[in-house]
Amino acid sequence: MKDFKLRDFILITIGILLVAFSLEYFYIPARIAAGGVTGIAIILNSFIPALPVGAIILVLNLILFATAFLTIGGGFGAKTIYASYGLSLIMWAMEAVLKPQALTDDLFINAAVGTIIVAIGMAMVFNSGASTGGTDILAKILNRYFHLDIGKSLLIVDFIVGLGGIMTFGIRIGLYAMLCIVVNGTLIDRLIDGLNTSKELMVISRNEEEIIRFIIKDLDRSCTVLTGYGGYTGEGTSVLYVVLNWREYIRLREYIREIDPRAFISVNDVHEVLGEGFKDLR
């Protein structure tokens, strides 16, 4: 629990709220069983309408966590437990109080908009070091006993859920669910990359001392000074290497533009930075 920071709590909460909203107003009314425990719950709800999807998810997660604890041990982490049970409880409350209805009857819009919102929410949850449990647990069990990669295990589980959707709701809705499964996984990866993107800079300037002071005092960062020489002139030069977030990069770029318009700056996108000032290496 000591690693469960307030920022993580807020981001996970917003993430599961987005996922719950998308499921209740897009996926469930359209009967899109796009993999995972939610997909299983949507299928079961079609056979037992009296049971809310949120309640089914809660029961399934309880069973899965108990099974995983007995077969592969604990170690889920407070974040994953909070995210998984938080999602099911929020959905249960929404179904009991708000009585969600479909916002549109168009199957394509339900699939497309639902997938985008789910991907944004899940990316926030995953980026905070949590997951919503569910099929992640099944994948870990398959990995433990059948030595399958986690990624392949997840794909197998979601594919089986998708087949269940085809057999329950028909080929048209089932194929939309399959498409949502594929697009959702890809979109989550892209969103996580975007959330973690930093800027890697190499700067060559005659005013390197002023730039170093600006980086340290104004941006509260540090940099590495590399020694080199010009291939054309043969003169010695210093190359500043620094990694900054997007806002810091804009400030540094504007500062360099003011003091040395002839400076040379190389900029690359970095999708993950580990260490002091960024994500904890542990």
TrEMBL record:
<keyword id="KW-0472">Membrane</keyword>
<dbReference type="InterPro" id="IPR019264">
    <property type="entry name" value="DUF2179"/>
</dbReference>
<keyword id="KW-1003">Cell membrane</keyword>
<dbReference type="Pfam" id="PF02588">
    <property type="entry name" value="YitT_membrane"/>
</dbReference>
<keyword id="KW-0812">Transmembrane</keyword>
<protein>
    <submittedName>
        <fullName>Membrane protein</fullName>
    </submittedName>
</protein>
<dbReference type="Pfam" id="PF10035">
    <property type="entry name" value="DUF2179"/>
</dbReference>
<feature type="transmembrane region" description="Helical">
    <location>
        <begin position="82"/>
        <end position="101"/>
    </location>
</feature>
<feature type="transmembrane region" description="Helical">
    <location>
        <begin position="107"/>
        <end position="126"/>
    </location>
</feature>
<keyword id="KW-1133">Transmembrane helix</keyword>
<feature type="transmembrane region" description="Helical">
    <location>
        <begin position="9"/>
        <end position="28"/>
    </location>
</feature>
<dbReference type="InterPro" id="IPR003740">
    <property type="entry name" value="YitT"/>
</dbReference>
<dbReference type="GO" id="GO:0005886">
    <property type="term" value="C:plasma membrane"/>
</dbReference>
<dbReference type="InterPro" id="IPR051461">
    <property type="entry name" value="UPF0750_membrane"/>
</dbReference>
<feature type="transmembrane region" description="Helical">
    <location>
        <begin position="40"/>
        <end position="70"/>
    </location>
</feature>
<dbReference type="InterPro" id="IPR015867">
    <property type="entry name" value="N-reg_PII/ATP_PRibTrfase_C"/>
</dbReference>
<feature type="transmembrane region" description="Helical">
    <location>
        <begin position="146"/>
        <end position="167"/>
    </location>
</feature>
<feature type="domain" description="DUF2179">
    <location>
        <begin position="221"/>
        <end position="275"/>
    </location>
</feature>
